[in-house]
Amino acid sequence: MSLESQTLLNNQLLTEKINLSITDGFLIIISALIAGFFLRFIFQRFSTTFSSKSGFGNAILLITLSCATLIAVVKSSLALSLGLVGALSVVRFRTAVKEPYNLSFILLSICIGISLGASQYFFALMILIFGSLTVAFLYKQSGIDKINFGSRSMDLDTIIINFPFKVDLTKLYEILSETTSYYAIKTYEQASNSS
User: Fold this and answer.
1) 73 burial via Cβ count (<10 Å: 0-12, 13-18, 19+)
2) Which residues lie below 8 Å from residue 80, measured CB to CB, with a gap of 6+?
3) pLDDT band at 126 (very low <50, low <70, confident <90, very high)
4) Whole-angstrom Cα distance, residue 91 to residue 128?
């Protein structure tokens, strides 16, 4: 094969498009929405995060849908996929995900979205089932399910309390134990008495 014919073949492969039918598009979007809502439910049910469960759950839903539709568009054209890689390389996310558990849910939703976008429905279902079972198993192993959460509906992310220097914290622990079902102190700092 001559160099000219090879270049022509490469150019033809770059510009060749595979049309995405309306049926395939709807199937990808609907399955991504169902998987995203299920992942959102799993996150909200089994999460012990200090971030907003509903806000992060909504992000998981949108990430699953976005990845699925992105991959569906990219698989239709090699030239479009190369351009998209260049365009996405300039996107920077400024918000840091501080909890590894939340990051793992983002990765799980991306994996499911990519599988659905590539029309690998059975593999996406396997990822969803095994991922959800793993999350539930880890939740049960942690013992958090044995805590009685009662009927409290308030869910705080973070609370910051400033006390005077050398204060007795036993009263704070009593108040937290009486008014909350579950709490965890992530950081405790004691500054020197400067006044």
Assistant:
1) middle
2) 17, 73, 74
3) very high
4) 28
